[in-house]
């Protein structure tokens, strides 16, 4: 599916405030509510819109540790390893990347012992050869909305 300018405008507005009603969005964009609703339904059907969520300040709810973990998999087992890692509760992102590392994992934790247990759990996954853990000291920006 190719997106036109109207679809992109709808998506940008929903990324900034997914709680606004279709009527509010239609007024803002200068189009009918029916048009906005039908476009949103189409974007949902095509899985361009996967869901709706709140953007939370993780530190304010106790997740003060962010870890970026490099994972090197054995042989050609990267996809299976990534699928397994994706099941962990603390994981925010799993990225299949280029370079000397196979996968980057971004995860959040409340305490160091949770991070320690997590990293040891990663190392015990079948076909994980090695991990390198980086702890984030400060977050300058963390917002995956394209604006």
From TrEMBL:
Assigned keywords, A-Z: DNA-binding, Transcription, Transcription regulation
GO cellular component: cytosol
Stored SMART domains: HTH_ASNC
GO terms under biological process: response to amino acid
GO MF, one annotated term: sequence-specific DNA binding
Keyword Lipid metabolism: no
Pfam families referenced in this protein's UniProt entry, alphabetically: AsnC_trans_reg (PF01037), HTH_AsnC-type (PF13404)
Domain HTH asnC-type: 3-64
InterPro entries found in the cross-reference section: AsnC-type_HTH_dom, Dimeric_a/b-barrel, Tscrpt_reg_AsnC-like, Tscrpt_reg_AsnC/Lrp_C, WH-like_DNA-bd_sf, WH_DNA-bd_sf
Top-rank lineage group of the source organism: Archaea
Name this protein carries in UniProt: HTH asnC-type domain-containing protein
Organism, as annotated: Nitrosopumilus adriaticus
